[in-house]
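Exercise 7. Given the components listed, write out the predicted structure of the assembled complex. Treat all entries as one system.
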Amino acid sequence: MSAAYEIVRYEPAFREQVARLQRHLWGGDVATNTAYLDWKYHRNPYLDDPLICLALHSGRVVGMRGMFGSRWEIGSPAERIVVPCADDFVIAPEHRNRGLVAQIMTATVDAVAATGYRYAFGLSAGAVTMMASLATGWRGVGSMRAAQRKRAEGLLARAPARLRTLPLLWRYADPLARLQYRLERPFARLDRRARSAAGASVRVEPAPRVDAMADLVRRLGHDGRIRHVRDEVYLAWRYRNPLHDYRFLLRGGDRLEGYLVLRADRKDPGRGVNIVDWEAATPDIREELLRAAVDWGNFPQLTIWTATVPGDTLAAVSRAGFVPVDAGSRMRSSPTILVCDVRRPKPASDMILGGRRLLDPASWDMRMVYSMAG
Amino acid sequence: MSGRPDRGALGEQLRALIAEFAPHEHGVIADDTPLISSALVESVALLNVALWVEEQVDAAVEITSFDLAAEWDTITQILDFVEKHRRPGRARPLP
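Answer.
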């Protein structure tokens, strides 16, 4: 018998149910999930109302696909365009393999079209969501070419990720991760070493210098490729993600010469630390920031996306010991940009935004912070 | 002799893989049954199909470089893809 599902737009009355459903994706703590939902959708600076589609079964929320707002700049002089970004796709386990994926994916794209947008992006899709997206008309731009620098890690660090895959035991993954986080705070060594590095030109802070970082981005200019607007509004919002902790490596005073942002996952420190944004006035300063992050942090696993890193910086990344993440399977290991033309019927021609071809990797200047991996 | 399963055996493997994740009421999966466009195969099932294809062609498949819904919509199309791309030797990105 086919189950009856109703696809509806999110309303605040569903807030608690969504936070509970997202235990299957975001993490087991409902209060943290509620904070994340509020931050990402209710306080998003670019979309006034949450753009989320829900699947209901007997009046209960059993599936979700969200679109959070993002604002991009393209071309020179830059044209600024708001684009909804797909994320947070989840279906309750007992409702999987019932044809619900296509229903909720299609409904969400239709909701974007009805709101008046032409394109949607997907920047954070895991393997399953990527496949579901490709099956419903999304196109991939190409791999972000993740590279990692690893040191040997202990059993405790790997345990939460392993537990999540096991029947019954999955529920202990988050409590263990939180315990691990308290015992092995990912940034403890970085903070300690930065404090003791007398006379160092790089300093480490736990909160963003919003004005100075936005000012540096403006001063460095823009080559016209597609990138997220990194102004004061964006930076102030973006680094309040309640699922992550950040550290900001800064060089310079109010007038910054460079910054590098590190991110750790609160609920799963075993995922390691990511370099999510990185800007500097010169290649030397850029490398100095990287060296500070690597040497002071000595993280078990440090990841960066290299697809749009400039050539001179790529050499510095390699010198610091990063190697490409094994691409034995393209499905498992490659974060990618997904794009969707939401108009119906779909046009056969290429997708163009601000004069740039969206399916051409060379059109993009991607940073991990634009995705929710950042 | 290659020792590889023939097309008929591959088809049965693929059918069994799809049936494992398909909706309970799917019925018979014929060679020309629409898989993706009918939502019979979606998300986890499609990921498993893609990993199975990679195993058969002994190479990583660049899944975003073609129109998945158009080129893998039936068992016949998927088997055609496997036959076209499988080769001995080391893995490398396809197509």
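Discussion: Chain A has a mean pLDDT of 90. The two ends of chain A are 42 Å apart (CA to CA).
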